[in-house]
Amino acid sequence: MQLLETLCRLAAPSGHEGPMTAFVLDYVQQNRAGWQHQPQVLAGDGFQDCVVLVFGQPRTAVFAHLDSIGFMVRYGRQLVAIGGPETQAGYHLVGHDAEGEIACTLTINDETETLGYEFSRELARGTELTFRCDFRETEQTVQSCYLDNRLGVWTALRLCETLEHGIIAFSCGEEHGGGTVPFLAQFIYDTYKVRQALICDITWVTEGVHLGGGCVISLRDSLIPRRAYVERIRAIAEKSGIAYQLEVEDSGGSDAKELQRAAQPWDWCFVGAPEDHVHTPDELVDKRDIASMLALYQVLLREL
């Protein structure tokens, strides 16, 4: 879990994924010699802060977003949300501006419901703040801010250790809408003729999805993937014997929303571990679901 903790401690809210991009590129450089197969690494000019790893003769692309939720300083002591963080007065926030490091607390005006911060000075407008990381590991669970989607990034990086054929696409901007998937999808489709995808992200615990029950295969959220593709994934999962759960929701979204709207005929399915306390500093995931998620991705990339 050391890699996961390192990822959770990196601040990279939507729009400022650069630190995560740099970490991923450095991680690939430092660890690729131990991987069974070597990828082509695509990044930099033309890819913004995204990273694309291409292994062998790919048939499937895995999308994992690098960004997280957070807050941005507005005017005076006001904050505006980046993405959809849960808000509770007293949450510890961290960041930095030209005057130095920042460790402040979130405030909420009861009358106007506007967000703010409590600190010894006013912060420069545009300063980004993120939840302070308190990474907690037990024998059965991991708890931290930003497991969404650092756990997806962790899974994708671990998948690289054995991947022979496939594409790993680290995307940006998912939490705040829009994002970089449209140009990544077109590039991948045009260059490699790949048109099936897995969304390597984190979903939520509900009355029908439980911690410890295995990785989630989503039949729908606010969008509905093509059933024939999802049934292929279910069949592979069933044959593998890996624990998994099925999800049916009427809200929520992911990088899949851009694939659904793409001009190219993309098939997609969300496959990810469930977490409790979503978009708070205390996101909670069961280690059995982490193991299930990685194992299922390894099988799916071989079989799809």
Automatic annotation (TrEMBL):
Keyword terms, alphabetized: Aminopeptidase, Hydrolase, Metal-binding, Protease
Family annotation (SUPFAM superfamilies): Zn-dependent exopeptidases (SSF53187)
InterPro entries reported for this sequence: Peptidase_M42, Peptidase_M42_aminopept
Signal peptide: none
Organism: Hymenobacter caeli
Protein name from the UniProt record: Aminopeptidase FrvX
Pfam families for the chain: Peptidase_M42
Keyword DNA damage: no
Keyword rRNA processing: no
Molecular function in Gene Ontology: aminopeptidase activity
Domain of life of the native organism: Bacteria
